[in-house]
């Protein structure tokens, strides 16, 4: 990552997370009413029968099985939900208790005849939930094949609890359920609050197997929160609350350190430094004491190496293997169950020729070296690309073979695009989870972690991983949104996010030329959105919907726009693009047409782009044929006398997929090119296309159109084609 890109990233993060009293916020004092009652359970069960009957819960007896103690954290999950709806559950000693409703938690041996042929599925994390009657008494069975199976039986029952006529009740149902891919549901919240709400959400809503925080990911000065005792103690207090939530529920969890800045040499980790070693071990010990584990993120920040590492080891792979082994040995000596999670600098790739150019070291040699690490150190992989879409079992086998373990899959995209590849609006179909993977791939990973804490995205992902065969993107999205907002609020939720979606074309981070040309429109839309939010019911202001966060972002965007309404860089960018185009193509401006990204429509805004060694340019790009941005189109008047044929010069960039993205280029409906685009994936390149004179029109508008022909609906990652400019001039 270049210094320029890092500084831009840090600026974006400050922009997004800085406080502003004028901005909306997701602030509801008590937001643990979710998942709201919909009458069904989510994630979608394997087998479920719901009845139009309700079990009264005013007088509830809890009979615990021999495998469940009164202080069991799973019992706490059940009791908290019951009390939230006004029930007063009491522990009872035997099945003879005459409570109005008797809930049997675990293997009690009571009332087994009421189950008939129903049984707990013999599957990992499997559970049984069954509501029955014994004479005048209601009986609820909650059973699990294992520890987590019983936990999911409880959280499923909790979703059926509601209030009718101010009385607590539960919808009667019978569920035999289990996850199709057990143990792989990860959740990545960036940080947590004083109530460990993200931990609560992971356990109670997502059914997460693993939770990975990033509370110590501070690339500006990674050592500071570990050196400063006040900051360290504040962090310790947070992780202890997280541990109190997750450890008793046997949900694995991590917090992360990124021991680099990528800017100052003194901020890079020194692998033989006792100071750096002791700081990382200090964090690891604190995490292990709270029942947690340590994640080390090297990824985009590892290179360049500190001079000490160059001197002591000569290569990153030798330095990193040494440091990881040493840290793991120190912490695991005291805490034998301690685990680590590691993101290497080569966290993407899919076989083929060895990559020795990205960082100046052999990718394959690095991955093979970390493959010798203890198996208690898991390793991240994002697939064949940084933002992968389709990932095959064959690509997985290549990476797993080198690192000698199942990788943790780190997904950097979700297939939607709302001015950013990391956002999705509650209610929209999340097709990626259905289309991007096959069963063999999901069985071949240690667990799956989406790179983002968005509750809605993670809920739909959990649904897809739980019951892949039944996963329907539209139905799943609607149900997840209703679980987060309440069914009665769903229409208003859709209205709010449709209003937000209307502003997608402006982008999120840097005010664009489109926004600069429509300042009053942006102001009007932002004010309408803020007014809608101010009148929204409390459920729509919950942190779990992120509506207030998005509204706040839009308010900050407007403020940035109004501070510089002329937006010199954005509004004058066309002139700079034209100058670049004329220079690179050696073209006379008086005898040519130069088309800039701002002149094209594409279902998204033009914006600045740079990546690794690809220099920053103002661009516009298109995704697959079924996406929201499948084509580029512009109209223009011919700027020179039409005499014979013309030449179309396009400066563009291909994606980094193994095969070039297929495109079709048309002039006034006439195809001048169709096939795999000829542009380079790692640098800007300019290609020439012949345009017959008969294809052009003099004195009336002409239409240039470029279509992406790849069969994909993803708005993030390959397949894409990017345009820097187009020049039309007489053929030489």
Main traits of this protein?
alpha/beta, disordered N terminus, 732 residues, 4 domains, eight-stranded mixed beta sheet, TIM Barrel, 21 helices, 32% helix, Chitobiase, domain 2
Please identify the top-level CATH class of the largest domain: Alpha Beta
State the CATH architecture of the largest domain: Alpha-Beta Barrel
| Morphology call | globular
Biggest sheet layout = 8 strands, mixed
Descriptive report:
The protein is of the alpha/beta class and about 725 residues long. It has four domains: about 45-175, Chitobiase/beta-hexosaminidase domain 2-like (Chitobiase, domain 2); about 180-485, Alpha-Beta Barrel (TIM Barrel), CATH 3.20.20.80; about 495-570, no CATH class; about 570-730, Galactose-binding domain-like (Jelly Rolls, Sandwich). It is built from 21 helices and 26 strands. The strands form four sheets. Strands 1, 2, 3, 4, 5, 6, 7 and 8 form an eight-stranded mixed beta sheet that branches. The protein has an eight-stranded parallel beta sheet with strand order 9-10-11-12-13-14-15-16. α2 links the parallel β2 (about 60-65) and β3. α10 (about 365-370) crosses α11. It is globular.
Set out the fold topology.
Blueprint lengths: L2 H15 L29 E10 L3 E5 L8 H12 L5 E2 L9 E5 L21 E8 L2 E8 L2 H13 L1 E4 L2 E11 L8 E2 L9 H8 L5 E3 L11 H4 L1 H18 L5 E6 L16 H16 L3 E5 L9 H6 L3 H19 L5 E4 L19 H8 L6 E5 L11 H11 L4 E4 L20 H4 L3 H5 L3 E4 L4 H12 L6 H13 L4 H12 L11 H5 L1 H16 L12 H17 L4 H4 L1 H13 L7 E3 L11 E5 L2 E9 L8 E6 L9 E9 L7 E6 L2 E7 L8 E7 L10 E7 L12 E10 L2
Helix pairs in contact: 2-3, 7-9, 9-10, 10-11, 14-15, 18-19
């Amino acid at each position: 990552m270049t210094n320029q890109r890092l500084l831009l990233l840090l600026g974006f993060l400050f922009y997004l997370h800085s406080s502003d009293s004028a901005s909306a916020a997701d602030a509801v004092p008590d937001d643990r009413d979710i998942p709201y009652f919909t009458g069904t359970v989510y994630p979608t069960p394997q087998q479920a029968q719901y009845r139009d009957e309700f079990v009264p819960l005013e007088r509830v007896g809890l009979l615990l099985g021999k495998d469940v103690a009164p202080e069991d954290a799973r019992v706490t999950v059940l009791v908290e939900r019951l009390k939230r709806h006004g029930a007063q559950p009491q522990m009872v000693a035997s099945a003879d208790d005459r409570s109005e409703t008797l809930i049997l938690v675990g293997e009690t041996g009571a009332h087994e005849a009421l189950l008939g042929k129903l049984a707990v599925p013999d599957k990992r994390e499997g559970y049984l939930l069954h509501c029955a009657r014994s004479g005048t008494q209601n009986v609820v069975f909650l059973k699990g094949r294992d520890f987590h199976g019983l936990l999911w039986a409880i959280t499923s029952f909790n979703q059926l609890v509601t209030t009718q006529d101010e009385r607590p009740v539960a919808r009667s149902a019978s569920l035999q359920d289990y996850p199709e891919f057990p143990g792989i549901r990860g959740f990545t919240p960036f940080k947590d609050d004083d109530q460990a709400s993200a931990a609560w959400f992971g356990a109670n809503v997502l059914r997460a197997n693993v939770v990975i925080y990033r509370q110590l990911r501070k690339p500006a000065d990674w050592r500071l929160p570990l050196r400063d005792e006040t900051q360290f103690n504040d962090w310790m207090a947070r992780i202890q609350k997280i541990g109190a939530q997750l450890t008793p529920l046997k949900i694995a969890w991590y917090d992360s350190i990124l021991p680099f800045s990528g800017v100052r040499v003194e901020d890079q980790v020194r692998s033989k430094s006792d100071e750096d070693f002791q700081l990382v071990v200090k964090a690891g010990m604190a995490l292990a004491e709270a029942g947690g584990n340590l994640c080390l993120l090297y990824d985009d920040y590892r290179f360049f190496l500190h001079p000490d590492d160059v001197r002591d080891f000569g290569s990153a792979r030798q330095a990193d293997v040494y440091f990881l082994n040493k840290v793991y040995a120190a912490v695991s000596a005291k805490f034998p169950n301690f685990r680590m999670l590691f993101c290497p600098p080569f966290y993407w790739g899919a076989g083929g020729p060895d990559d020795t150019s990205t960082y100046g070291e052999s990718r394959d040699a690095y991955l093979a070296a970390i493959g010798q690490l203890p198996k208690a150190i898991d390793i991240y992989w994002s697939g064949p690309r940084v933002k992968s879409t389709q990932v095959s079992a064959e690509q997985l086998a290549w990476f797993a073979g080198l690192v000698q373990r199942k990788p943790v899959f780190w997904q950097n995209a979700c297939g939607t695009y709302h001015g950013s590849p990391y956002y999705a609006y509650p209610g929209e179909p999340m097709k990626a989870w259905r289309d991007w993977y096959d069963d063999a791939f999901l069985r071949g990973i240690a667990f799956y972690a989406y790179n983002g804490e968005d509750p809605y995205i993670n809920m739909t992902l959990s649904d897809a991983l739980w019951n892949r065969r039944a996963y329907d993107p539209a139905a799943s999205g609607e149900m997840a949104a209703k679980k987060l907002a309440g069914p009665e609020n769903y229409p208003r939720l859709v209205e709010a996010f449709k209003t937000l979606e209307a502003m997608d074309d402006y982008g999120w981070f840097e005010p664009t030329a489109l926004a600069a040309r429509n300042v009053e429109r942006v102001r009007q839309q932002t004010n309408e959105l803020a007014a809608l939010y101010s009148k929204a019911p409390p459920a729509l202001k919950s942190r779990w919907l992120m509506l207030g966060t998005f509204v706040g972002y839009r308010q900050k965007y407007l403020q940035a726009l109004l501070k510089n309404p002329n937006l010199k860089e954005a509004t004058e960018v066309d002139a700079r693009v034209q100058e670049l185009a004329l220079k690179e193509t050696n073209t006379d401006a008086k005898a040519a047409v130069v088309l800039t990204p701002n002149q094209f429509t594409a279902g998204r805004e033009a914006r600045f782009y740079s990546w690794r060694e690809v220099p920053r340019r103002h661009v516009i790009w298109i995704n697959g044929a079924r996406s929201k941005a499948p084509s580029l189109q512009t109209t223009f008047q011919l700027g020179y006398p039409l005499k014979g044929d013309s030449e179309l010069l396009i400066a563009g960039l291909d994606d980094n997929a193994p095969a070039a993205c297929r495109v079709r280029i048309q002039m006034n409906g006439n195809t001048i090119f169709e096939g795999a685009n000829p542009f380079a994936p790692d640098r800007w390149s300019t290609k020439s296309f012949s345009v017959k004179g008969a294809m052009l029109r003099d004195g009336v508008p002409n239409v240039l159109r470029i279509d992406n022909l790849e069969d994909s609906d993803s708005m993030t990652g390959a397949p894409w084609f990017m345009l820097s400019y187009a020049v039309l001039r007489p053929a030489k």
